[in-house]
C-alpha cells in the first residue's frame, strides 16, 4: 500500500493525509511530521521502506517521470497530437512477452507522456530481458512492429534439495546413468557398507516397503543431495547406537 500511495502522490503531486491520527507518540522524534491534510509533493524522489514482522525488509527509491503537467483537456489533446508516429521500444524475457506488450500498447489510447516513460524504462539493456522489440504509435494504418533476440539466453542451473517425504521407490535409478552422480554414489556406498547399508539398492529398488524404514529414507535423500554433479562431497558417518540415529556430515 505504501508503494501505491507513493505512486498516487507522484501522479497527482499531492500527498494523501493519514487517517485516524490524533496525537503523536512522544517517544518519536518530533521532527517527523505526520500529515493530516493533503500536502503538495515537492521534488521528484520518494523513498518507500517496508519492515515486515516475518523478516522481509525492503527499501526502494522512486523517481517521478519528468513530464510537463497539463491542466486542461485541450492541453492534453495538444500534448498527445503527433503529425507522425513515434518509435516506442520494449523488452521482455520471451518473444511472446514482446508481442503481449506491443499488443497492449497498440490497443491503448495514445498518450505521449506514457510513451516517453516506456522508452525511458527500456532504452537501456535490462539483464534477464533477452528480447527487444519496437512499435510505432499511434498505430499507422498498417501496424509496424518487430522483435529481436538481443541477449544470449544462458540461464543458471539450480539444484533444489527437498526434505523428508520426497523419496520414492527407484528414486535415483535414472540418475545412475550419469557418471559423476554414479561415482559419488559409489563413494558413499563404500562408506555406508560397514554400517550395513546398501545405498545403491535403497535408491534403485522398486520395493514399495524400502522407505518404511525412516533410516533408509533419510540416507537416500541426503545421499542424492550430496551426490549432485556440482558437488564432490567428503562424507563421514557416525552411527549412534544409543539413540539409533545416523549422523551424516559432508564438506566440499
Structure overview:
With 252 residues, this protein is an alpha+beta fold. The chain folds into three domains: 1-63, no CATH class; 83-149, Alpha-Beta Plaits, CATH 3.30.70.3290; 156-251, Malonyl-Coenzyme A Acyl Carrier Protein, domain 2 (3-Layer(aba) Sandwich). The chain has seven helices and nine strands. It has a three-stranded antiparallel sheet with strand order 5-6-7. The two termini are 45 Å apart. The relative contact order is 0.08.
Write the layout of secondary structure elements.
Blueprint (H helix, E strand, L loop, with lengths): L1 H11 L1 E2 L23 E2 L4 E7 L5 E7 L9 H8 L5 E7 L2 H13 L4 H11 L8 E7 L7 E5 L29 H14 L6 H6 L9 H13 L7 E7 L4 E7 L1
Antiparallel strand pairs: 1-2, 3-4, 5-6, 6-7, 8-9
Pfam families: Acyl_transf_1, KAsynt_C_assoc
Protein name: Fatty acid synthase-like
GO biological process, one term: fatty acid biosynthetic process
- Identify the CATH architecture of the largest domain: 3-Layer(aba) Sandwich
CATH class of the largest domain: Alpha Beta
Radius of gyration: 30 Å
The amount of beta strand, in percent, is 15-25%
Number of helices: 7
Q: What is the CATH homology-level superfamily of the largest domain?
A: Malonyl-Coenzyme A Acyl Carrier Protein, domain 2
Number of domain modules: 3
Shape: flat
Summed over residues and divided by their number, the pLDDT gives a mean of: 79
Amino acid at each position: 500500500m505504501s508503494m501505491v500511495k507513493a505512486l498516487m502522490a507522484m501522479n497527482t503531486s499531492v500527498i494523501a493525509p493519514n487517517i485516524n491520527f490524533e496525537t503523536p507518540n512522544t517517544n518519536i522524534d518530533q521532527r517527523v511530521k505526520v500529515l493530516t491534510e493533503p500536502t503538495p509533493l515537492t521534488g521528484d524522489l520518494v523513498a518507500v521502506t517496508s519492515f515486515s514482522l516475518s523478516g522481509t525488509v525492503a527499501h526502494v527509491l522512486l523517481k517521478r517521470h519528468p513530464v510537463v503537467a497539463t491542466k486542461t483537456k485541450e492541453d492534453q489533446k495538444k500534448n498527445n497530437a503527433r503529425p507522425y508516429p513515434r518509435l516506442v521500444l520494449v523488452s521482455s524475457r520471451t518473444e511472446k512477452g514482446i508481442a503481449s506488450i506491443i499488443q497492449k500498447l497498440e490497443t491503448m489510447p495514445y498518450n505521449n507522456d506514457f510513451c516517453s516513460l516506456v522508452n525511458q524504462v527500456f532504452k537501456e539493456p535490462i539483464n534477464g530481458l533477452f528480447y527487444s522489440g519496437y512499435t510505432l504509435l499511434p498505430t499507422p494504418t498498417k501496424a509496424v512492429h518487430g522483435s529481436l533476440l538481443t541477449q544470449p539466453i544462458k540461464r543458471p542451473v539450480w539444484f533444489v534439495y527437498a526434505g523428508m517425504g520426497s523419496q520414492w521407490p527407484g528414486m535415483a535409478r535414472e540418475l545412475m546413468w550419469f557418471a559423476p552422480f554414479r561415482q559419488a554414489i559409489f563413494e558413499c556406498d563404500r562408506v555406508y557398507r560397514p554400517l550395513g547399508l546398501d545405498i545403491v539398492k535403497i535408491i534403485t529398488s522398486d520395493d514399495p516397503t524400502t522407505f518404511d524404514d525412516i533410516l533408509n529414507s533419510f540416507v537416500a535423500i541426503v545421499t542424492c543431495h550430496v551426490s549432485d554433479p556440482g558437488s564432490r562431497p567428503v562424507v563421514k558417518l557416525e552411527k549412534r547406537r544409543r539413540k539409533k540415529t545416523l549422523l551424516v556430515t559432508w564438506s566440499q
